[in-house]
UniProtKB/TrEMBL annotation:
Gene Ontology terms, MF aspect: metal ion binding; peptide deformylase activity
Pfam families xrefs: Pep_deformylase
Cofactor info, note text: Binds 1 Fe(2+) ion.
Name the UniProt record assigns to this protein: Peptide deformylase
Annotated binding of Fe cation, by residue: 107, 149, 153
Gene: def
Keywords: Hydrolase, Iron, Metal-binding, Protein biosynthesis
Keyword Transit peptide appears in the UniProt entry: no
């Protein structure tokens, strides 16, 4: 089932999310619906608070990004990396690299806006997967960026928080229009008004 994605301005996007239990009866349906919602919105990542559920669950599919890029554009996929299709539950980023890079980011909750954001090049993350198996993995490049973006969502952080005050000021009117439903997307959204 495709779920509505909450828009910028919704309180749930600013909540620090709670951990989920392995035997949560609603977890499997939530994850299945989130994957369907992600693909219905033509996205590469989605966090549970974006579908109005404040739990520590997010999805990343950098495999589709890799497959859709021309070979010469794959420079931010490190040697041997062809992307991931992964569910992250109760994640915690354990390490960030000192090396950083800047690339453009957008967000399904903030349609029609994309801005450059500086992030660490690589991260090490601990989480449980969809089968609740403990994982500790290191990711770099685009995949690491996608994970950091979605991880921020479960911490109540938006990529806009990394912009300068001037950059944020220039977006003020557009963000108001998004929160009020004046700027929409081609997927179901839930607006604050």
């Amino acid at each position: 089932m495709i779920l509505s994605i909450v828009s910028y301005g919704h309180d749930v996007l600013r909540q620090k999310c709670i951990e989920v239990e392995q035997h949560d009866p609603e977890l499997e349906a939530l994850i299945t619906n989130m994957w369907e919602t992600l693909y219905g919105a033509d996205g590469c990542g989605l966090a549970a608070p974006q579908v109005n559920v404040p739990v520590r669950v997010f999805l990343v599919d950098s495999k589709l990004t890799y497959e859709s890029m021309a070979e010469e554009d794959r420079e931010y996929f490190y040697d041997g990396d062809t992307g991931i299709h992964e569910t992250f539950i109760n994640a915690r980023i354990a390490e960030y690299s000192e090396d950083t890079w800047i690339d453009e980011e957008g967000c399904l909750s903030i349609p029609a806006i994309a801005r450059d954001v500086e992030r660490p090049w690589s991260i090490t993350i601990e989480y449980v997967d969809r089968q609740f198996q403990p994982q500790r993995k290191t990711f770099s490049g685009i995949t690491a960026r996608m994970i950091q973006h979605e991880y921020d969502h479960i911490e109540g952080i938006l990529y806009l928080d990394y912009l300068t005050p001037r950059q944020k000021s220039l977006l003020k009117d557009k963000l108001r229009k998004i929160s009020e439903g004046e700027i929409t997307a081609e997927y179901p959204m839930k607006f604050t008004k």
